[in-house]
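Notes from the pairing session

We agreed to fold both candidates in a single pass and log them together. This is the raw record for the first candidate, unedited. Please don't reformat it; downstream parsing expects exactly this layout.

Candidate A
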Amino acid sequence: MNLKTKLEEDGVELPENFFFNIQKYKEHLFKWNKIHNLTGAKDANSVDNFIYDAVFPVTFLPKVATLMDIGTGAGFPGMILAFALPNTHVTLVEPLAKRASFLQFIKADLKLTNVTIVKKRVEQTPSQIFDIITSRAVTDTKMLLKLSENFRDKDSKLLFYKGEKVFDEIDANVEANMKHKIIETNNRHYLLLGENL
């Protein structure tokens, strides 16, 4: 089943230009990946799985004005979410120069007005409050809560893309006043955290 059909079947509502942007993104990713090794996803099927994985939370996330993605890498999930949420301003934090350059190139090529790229470690990024903070494959929940402290308030939500280890990370690491939900799909566990879930 192709990506478009799968997303439509799962009821993921996407803007008209989403698949155009995805097609362009994939073309550039494959070219850049040959030289710069931006991501472990080397074939079309793996990249489609990464895209599906990145965008599925659109089915359960609230509409928000701002989103920050910590350690975006080649754009998963942050850049993909930016394609899916044109009314949300997405800040992509990525310290590695070659990945940040790729993200800048995508932003320019697709004329994305809702994306800001910050080529820094999150610890060096100026403090600002975001509605949602996302992260995939960066570090464990406890560390992500620490890294995101300067970027959230009591109304912010956190969405961490996790595997099955998520259950081990919850009990000891989630702050007492923070509620959480785990949304499970075949290949992914999404950990949604916040004081007001």
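Candidate B (folded immediately after A)
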Amino acid sequence: MKKITYIFAVLMLFFAACGNSSDNILSTDLVNNPNSANGNIDMSKLPKFEFQSEEHDFGKIQQGEKVSYVFKFKNVGKSDLIISDAKASCGCTVADYPKTPVKPGVEGEISVSFNSEGKKGIQNKTVTLLANTQPNSKVITIKAEIIVNANN
């Protein structure tokens, strides 16, 4: 009986470990890495960001205030644009980006939130987007002047 229980447990672990979900799998056809060993890069076929604005100024905000801004962009390239990551320069800044490919000619949005808790004065924060573009990173910027109340 112990052997049967043991075999059943091992089989359950095996099936759980092998259960691949195809929801998050991207086709390799979508990934076009232009950096090749032969040095020939056809830039005309690559995806490309075109932002309405790459910088946003929140102006003066009160210390502790949480603000957000949506950066709008368009893929003006000739293949699907895939953003693999968005790294903020500070833990007070969070970026939400499209997790699915952005088709050529289609617009997308990157929402950036900033928490001014514990900050004061002029703050400049960046978000670095990693994508299948050339170059493979794009930086967008937010800034604000944090006003500290006398009773804080």
